[in-house]
Amino acid sequence: MALQYINLFNLKELNKWLIRLLQGLISLLERNEKEYTPKTPLKVKMPTSKPTEVKGVNLLLIRDTFSENSTIGELFLNGERMCDTLELPYKDNQRSISCIPSGEYKVRMRYPRESATREYLHLLIKDVPNRDYILIHRGNKPSHSKGCVLLGMTSQQDFVGNSTLAMDLLLKEIINLGGRNINLIIKNK
To answer: What percent of the chain has pLDDT over 90?
Structure first.
């Protein structure tokens, strides 16, 4: 029966519906609605032991394809591959024309109200040497970045595709993990 419903939608319509759903969830988060409380209390057994894994969000960006115009890589969240990345080529960390150096960074969510150019939730990479406002955001080609990391579900030379979906899926997972204590490690292959 589920297959009949999928057949009713073409893939584009399903993709648009998923994006609207994720944007609605993000909008709820931005309005500081902590969680939905059902009218009828649910009996949930809480775990009595402490979890063994470290809390937080660990992002790993592995850069693997380098061209004159871009750097393509893969982004992992807590060990699971999430999407492809596109950055500018490395040019000694020069502002607006270079990707940032490999290394370890702290990251935080950045809300649309904090940005003059981004009308959606995105990520800010903190404490990048000699750089400000390095973001992880939507975009498809090198001209959409001034040193930021662009996300996509597909990649080819100097291009990532379906960026909005990649961004929304990443943010959904980060929010599910608490949205705090986000660490990023960038490595060249």
So the answer is: 65
